[in-house]
Amino acid sequence: MAEFTGALRVLNEMKAASVVEEYAIAGAMALAFWIEPVPTFDLDVLVFLPETPGPLVSLSSIYAWTAARGYAEKDEHVLIEGVPVQFLPSHDELADEAVRTAETLDYAGVAVRVVLPEYLVALYSEPSARTAKRRVRAAALAESPRLDRSRLEALLRRFSLEM
């Protein structure tokens, strides 16, 4: 738990230092805030990156900032306080909206932005993300009493998605 809390603190430091403009926890770790946690080994973080010249998205500012603080890269992750963290630039309008509408919650005294359950279901329903594991997660979230069914249905309609 101390490692996860430490990683969350670092995410907030990255935002304060403008390394990322905004972030929101997504993926399996986000589920722990809305339903029963599921096993996972990494922390997925959707991010808005500062404007850069050119059409390519680069995570170099994240890697430089984390390396300067002694955090190592391992494959597509940065090991922050022992937690493998994968930074995922927001990739479409749905992901942008998921980050913008994320709820700020408390985890062991640390403020953390978490993608709302309706947006997690919608993100899991995108054709590029549809795997058996994600379908199971989407179904579990859809059964949660914390999920706003009308918001979910509106999202699925607006983005032409199916669960």
Features:
163 residues, alpha+beta, Beta Polymerase, domain 2, 5-stranded mixed beta sheet, two-stranded antiparallel sheet, 7 strands, 43% helix
Q: Could you tell me the mean pLDDT?
A: 92
Low-pLDDT stretches: none
Span from first to last CA?
32 Å
Enter the CATH topology name of the domain at 2-115.
Answer: Beta Polymerase, domain 2
* CATH architect. name of the domain at 2-115: 2-Layer Sandwich
- Which strands sit side by side, in order, in the main sheet? 1-2-5-4-3
Main sheet characteristics: 5 strands, mixed
Description of the structure:
This protein is of the alpha+beta class and 163 residues long. It has a domain at 2-115: Beta Polymerase, domain 2. The chain has seven helices and seven strands. The strands form two sheets. The chain has a five-stranded mixed β-sheet with strand order 1-2-5-4-3, with helices on both faces. A two-stranded antiparallel sheet has the order 6-7. A hairpin with a 2-residue loop joins strand 4 and strand 5. Helix 4 runs antiparallel to helix 5 (117-125), helix 5 (117-125) packs antiparallel against helix 6 (132-142) and helix 5 packs parallel to helix 7. The longest helix is centred in the N-terminal third of the chain and has 15 residues, at 2-16. The chain is globular, with a radius of gyration of 16 Å.
Break the fold down into its secondary structure elements and pairings.
Blueprint: H1 2-16, E1 22-26, H2 27-34, E2 43-48, H3 60-68, E3 73-74, E4 77-80, E5 83-89, H4 93-100, E6 103-107, E7 110-114, H5 117-125, H6 132-142, H7 149-158
Parallel strand pairs: 2-5
Antiparallel strand pairs: 1-2, 3-4, 4-5, 6-7
Helix pairs in contact: 4-5, 5-6, 5-7
